[in-house]
Amino acid sequence: DASTETINCTTLKLLKAGSIVNIERALTLQKPLGGHLVSGHVDGLVKLVKRQPDARSIRFYFEVPKELMHYVAAKGSVCLDGVSLTVNHVDGQIFDVNIIPHTQEITNIKAWTVGQEVNLEIDIIARYLERFIQVKSQGDAKQGVTMQTLIDNGFA
Question: I need a surface site. Which of 57, 97, 105, 132 has the fewest CB within 10 A?
């Protein structure tokens, strides 16, 4: 089962029986991190606009919806179809990532084709930083964040 929100925001509606997806056991915070923190909450879809060989890697270029673009930063992190990746460059609404051979082999990325949409999860720190700034700008800057501020804004 999936919620309407999940169906509307992800590629789940495009999957068929036998489709390959990336699944990984949840990481407990007692274990070493091999990437960045991801929650599995998809923020939207990005469109693969170009695939380009780059030495032993493949460089993938994605077009991002305007409402999500401000979350994407060069040398920052994104999660695409559940795979934690580092952004190389950002140019307007386009960003690119490199996929090394190991990642190509153990994920569904090798099957991505130009024109295909993939799930995008923005960096969780960027999401909360933006929300913190919004909350701060709505109230008295001298007051700071109190427990009541967190409750009033859905954080507690």
Answer: 105
C-alpha–C-alpha distance, residues 57 and 44, integer Å: 25
Q: What is the DSSP letter of 100?
A: -
Q: Which residues pair with 53 in a beta bridge?
A: 58
- Show me where the domains of the chain are located: 1-15+35-122, 124-156
pLDDT tens digit sequence for 51-85: 999 999 999 999 999 999 999 999 999 999 999 99
Three-state secondary structure readout of 112-124 = CCCCCEEEEEECH
Those residues of the chain that have pLDDT short of 50 are none
User: The tokens 């274990």 sit on which residue?
Assistant: 31
- Centre a 10 Å sphere on the Cβ of residue 58 and count the other Cβ atoms it contains: 19
For residues 76-92, b (16+ Cβ closer than 10 Å) or e, as one string?
bbbbbbbbbbebeebee
User: Which one, of 130, 117, 136, lies nearest residue 73 by Cα?
Assistant: 130
Owner of token pair 């140019």: 91
The structure tokens 């693969």 sit at 48
Cβ(56)–Cβ(98) under 8 Å? no
